[in-house]
Design goal:
about 30% helix; single chain; about 260 residues; alpha+beta; four-stranded mixed beta sheet
Length: about 260
Amino acid sequence: MDFINFVKDVGTLEFTNPKEGLHLEFKTASWKLPQNIWETVSSFSNTDGGLIVLGVDEPQSHHYKIVGVDQPDDVIKELFNSNNNPNVINKPVIQDSDVKVTKFNGKTLIQIKIYPAQFSDKPITFKDKTYMRTDDGDRLATHDQLKYLYAESQDQVDTRLLENFDWDSDLNLEDINDYRKKLEKVEDADSISKSDYELLTDIGVLRRDRRSSSKERKLTEGGLLFFGKFMSIMDRFPRFQLDYKGMLKTAIPIGLIVFQQGT
C-alpha cells in the first residue's frame, strides 16, 4: 500500500475514508511509540503487508480523527531501536525508506510501510508471538497457520531427512488417523487400506536415505512439522512455539499438497 496523501485523499481532520482494513492500520502516538504497533508489524509481515499511520485516533468505529504526533523524532528513534531489538521483534523489517513524516493542517503524522516478509524470514514475531492480519485486526496465529508459516520458511523442509527421529515414536498417531479420514472423503481407497508405514512412505513423510545402502527410510522435517508430537517438533525446531495452550492438533490440508512428491 502506498503512503497516503492526506491533502488529496483525506482533506479534513476528521474522516471516514480511507478506513482500517487488511492493509491499513491507524494508531495514536503523541510522544511515545505504542507497543501494540509490533503486533501489527508482525501481522502485516506474515500476511500481505500494509501501512501503519501514527497520529490518528478512532473515537468511534470507522470514524477517524487526526490528532498528530507531538514528538515525531523521539517516536521514530524508538521505532528503529525496537526494530533492531530481537527481544521485541525477532528480525528487523523496517528500513529508513519505509518511514515518511507527513504534515497536514498543523498536525504531524508518521507513515510506516510494512512489506510482506520473505518466506525464509517467516514467521516475524513480537515477543515470541506470531500475529496474522485478518480484516482490520491483528490476531494470534492459529496452530495450523503457525505450522504452515514455519514450514514455508524452511528451505527444502519437506525432503530433509532427520537423524535420531522415529516415525512411530515422534509422530502423533491421531494426526495420521485424521489424515486418513480426509482421504476417505476424497475416496482414496488404495491409501486407506495401507498400513501407517506404507501410507507415510507414499506421501513422502518417510523417505529413503540414498546416501546409505541399507535402504532405510527416515522421517522428513516436513513430516515432523505436520504430523509430529509437539515436544518432538521442539527438539528439532526450538523456536517453534504455540501462541496458546489447549489447542487440539489437527492434520493440515496443506499436507495433501506438500508431501505428494513421491519417495
